[in-house]
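Slide 14.
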Amino acid sequence: MGTRDPRIDAYIEKAAPFARPILSHLREVVHATVPEVQEDIKWGMPAFMYKGMFCGLASFKEHAAFNFWKHSLIVGGERPEDAMGSFGRITSLADLPPDDVLAGYLREAKRLNDEGIRAPRAEKPKEAKQEPDVPDDLVAALETNPAAQEHFHSFSPSKRKDYIEWITEAKSDATRRKRLDTAVEWISEGKSRNWKYERK
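Slide 15: predicted structure.
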């Protein structure tokens, strides 16, 4: 059998008056549909566990939320953008799906966990990393030393960035000139900006 956590009772009691009946109702539907669920608190909010993460509740100043851990496989589509959770902003019981629909979602969530099916990872589009522009004074300094220029262009973008940031972050012109001289010397030897700390 499942468990009930007194911390969730306390969470519901502290919720805004409009949210209490919503949270209590959702909690009861979860237990009625999947009696094996274990209650817990995750990230400061009520969570229901069943063979791993299952679903959860949340209460805010002006709305409540209900979240399926495997939303895309259960409810389908993207989560609503107006609030966290699977059903967007819930301000009254009327904002919830009918109990039989909600129970169907819960049974599907149970089946997925029974079968060990994982939620697909949301793939973030890879953004092309912008390499900072090489400052004019570094370009000019490298042009005076062909070996340094060759090494600099063969460095990885991160190694070039280390040098560019070191030079552009100098607080005074004198410091910047000194760093330029040092950079050209080290680069001409094929050294990275942090060569002193690299393992040999």
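Speaker note: The chain has a mean pLDDT of 88.
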